[in-house]
Write a structure and sequence with these properties.
Elements lengths: L6 E4 L7 H9 L4 E4 L14 H14 L2 E6 L11 H20 L4 E4 L2 E2 L5 H13 L10 E5 L7 E2 L3 H11 L5 E6 H6 L7 H14 L5 E6 L1 E2 L10 E2 L8 H9 L8 E3 L5 H14 L4
Parallel strand pairs: 1-2, 1-12, 2-3, 3-4, 4-6, 6-8, 8-9, 9-12
Antiparallel strand pairs: 5-7, 10-11
Helix pairs in contact: 1-2, 4-5
Bound molecules: zinc ion (2 copies).
């Protein structure tokens, strides 16, 4: 049997998480990302039995796999502020439990922001926060550190940051990485051509290890290489350009890794962008 290409986008869960699956199906996605709760509020959703049943049914009907949840934007597992850190760990634990109830495969999160602490302190706090989750950990979801653009005091814009966290938690926490193409480009990793992307992947392999690479957020970038500014553009409409995405869909090391669009034009373009990525990968 031919291996399926795993391409989709971040889908809205308005009206219930199961709707994200049906919207994904509408866009011909084979994978999706979603928020299991309002990403701008501390108080999380409780997943009811009815919702689980609808979710399971939608999963069967849509055949969507490799489902990814993105954590709330408020969470900072590396915060130097005690209260925020406490709230963050609580919200993250609740997110983890929602993912387990829905049997979600990956939970991706921005590692954290140092604010007035140092990057090293922030990274150590993130490791401690993650290790505190150990009693809740099950096989699924795998926690994915997202590469960041390095905006403000965000850590995670260097492969070394992620390698540092992985090394400290891997024995106790199922951990991996989600590369966001817009973010690494803004962070200074060139991926505009086949040659440059290959070099970046080689660097990733040397510092982190490609066996930790579970997913891609596929976005073009409004801002230039090394700008440290995070603003997504639709594929081919930003500073990265289409060669990068063609490479992603043809290189044997990245072709079958799940990919999730977070491009800004959303509904209007996702169908075309998903089609384009599949086309690059050799699917009609
Ligand atoms: Zn992303
Ligand atoms: Zn972003």
């Amino acid at each position: 049997m031919k291996k399926p290409l795993l391409v989709g986008a971040h889908m809205s869960a308005t009206g219930g998480v199961h709707n994200a699956l049906y919207t994904g199906q509408f866009f011909k996605a084979t994978v999706i990302q979603l928020f299991t709760t309002n990403q701008r509020r501390w108080a999380g959703n409780k997943i009811t039995k009815e919702e689980i049943a609808l979710w399971e049914k939608a999963k069967k009907e849509t055949k969507i796999t490799h489902i990814m949840s993105h954590d709330s934007y408020l969470i900072n597992l590396g915060s130097p502020k005690k209260m925020v850190l406490k709230k963050s760990i609580k919200a993250f634990s609740e997110e983890l439990i929602r993912c387990q109830l829905l049997q979600i495969d990956y939970l991706t999160f921005h590692p954290g922001s140092a604010l007035n602490s140092t990057e090293k302190e922030c990274l150590d706090t993130i490791c401690k926060s993650l290790l505190s989750l150990k009693p809740l950990i099950k096989k699924k979801p795998i926690l994915l550190l997202e590469t960041t653009a390095g905006q403000g005091s965000n850590v995670g814009y260097k492969f070394e940051h992620l390698a540092y966290i992985i090394k400290k938690v891997k024995k106790n926490i199922p951990i991996g990485v989600c590369i966001d193409t817009c973010h690494i480009f803004a962070a200074g990793y060139d991926i505009r051509t086949k040659k440059e992307f290959k070099n970046t992947l080689k660097e990733f392999d040397e510092i982190i290890g490609l066996n930790y690479l579970y997913a891609f957020h596929v976005n073009d970038s409004v801002f230039e290489l090394g700008s440290r500014r995070d603003r997504h553009a639709s594929l081919g409409m930003g500073k990265i350009g289409l060669e990068c995405f063609k490479f992603l869909m043809t290189n044997p090391k990245t072709k079958y890794i799940p990919k999730y669009l977070e491009t800004p034009l959303g509904d209007k373009y996702w169908k075309d962008e998903i089609k384009l990525l599949k086309h690059f990968g050799g699917e009609k």
